[in-house]
Amino acid sequence: MRQFLARSSRASARAAPARDRYRGMQALAWGSLVAALAVLVAVAALLPRAAGALFSGVSEPRATVAEVIEGTVLFQPPAIATWQRLAGRANLAEGTRLRTDDRSRVFLQTREGSTVLLYNETELAVQRMQYGRFNPAVQDTVFRLFRGRVQIGVALHSEAPGREISLLAGQGRIDLGEGSYRIELEADGSTHLSVRQGAAKLWSGSRVLEVPTGQRAVLTRDARITGPLPLERDLVRDPLFERRVDGSPWSQFVVTEAGAAGSVAQTPDGVRFERRTPDGGTDRHGESGLVQELDRDVRDYVQLRLRADVRTEVQTLSGGGTAGTEYPLMLRLNYLDADGHEQIWATGFYHQNDAGLSVNLGQEIPAGAWITYDNPRLLQEIRPAPVRLLRVEVLGSGWEYRSAVRRVELTGH
What's the whole-model pTM score? Predict the structure, then answer.
């Protein structure tokens, strides 16, 4: 019996390691199976996200639709050196440049509905027009303005409401959110941004200025940012006649039908226009005044305002003369209408009308007193409506006269 128990004990001792190895292998197998299932579940859950993340950033160029509004518009396809005439309506590839002359305009529309209007004498490049292939929220839109003026309308992006469109101009970059904007690159290299609706960021290097609705900003050629400024812009240089003849934007002119010629003289309190003779017998038309060239396209302006400080002292021709167009002090604005015809808007000031002549274009003011003329609704009054302002004139006219002006401001937006 003792021998049998001893043999059984030795057999059990030899079988114990075998059972332990079996249990270990069984546990390892179950562990591997559970781990494999866990990995499978994780892969099944994360693979779509990983694939989505991988492909969400994939973008591709999309065409921009261009439609000629008027005149001859030229375009330069990417990687082609020659300019070609743009058809009435065409699809533009990314990298295309556009150019308008003094009589042409073109309208662009991007894939998601944003718009760009190129005015006369403007050159613009559709520099980047990338859209997400699988993710509609991805968009990278960049224009470059080389010269001229554009009106940009940024549409609301349904997938990315905070999306911005960028415009490179001069020494800086402008980021435009949903809204309406006008950008001008002047001949002196300065960039003017007007925000009619929305919000924009004007960048110069690492410096940035946020420009809200109803404000304006300027980026100078030497990369200085000025603003925010009122939306209204000064269209007349040297409105207070502070510059002398050399370097002044104002030029003198004298028109004489017969008799003595008039004169223009700068005085401590302004500019005087005078035509006098010892006997006061002049009875033929004459003019003397100042003129400034404007050459300003205003077809998208909503306001023009004219302000002037004027005075009349001597007037021998009553009222505004027989035709109502001769006053001792006058303001005249020459412009082009939508048909390209040159027109003249004018207003005059007088202090006597003893002969009861026409004063349709004038208004009576006290003799010898400074009066401020302020017309904030000039754009609504001018008919036919102006498209381009050519020049502004301030002058004395009639028979014999002496009058003066010390300020002429023309502003608009």
Answer: 0.77
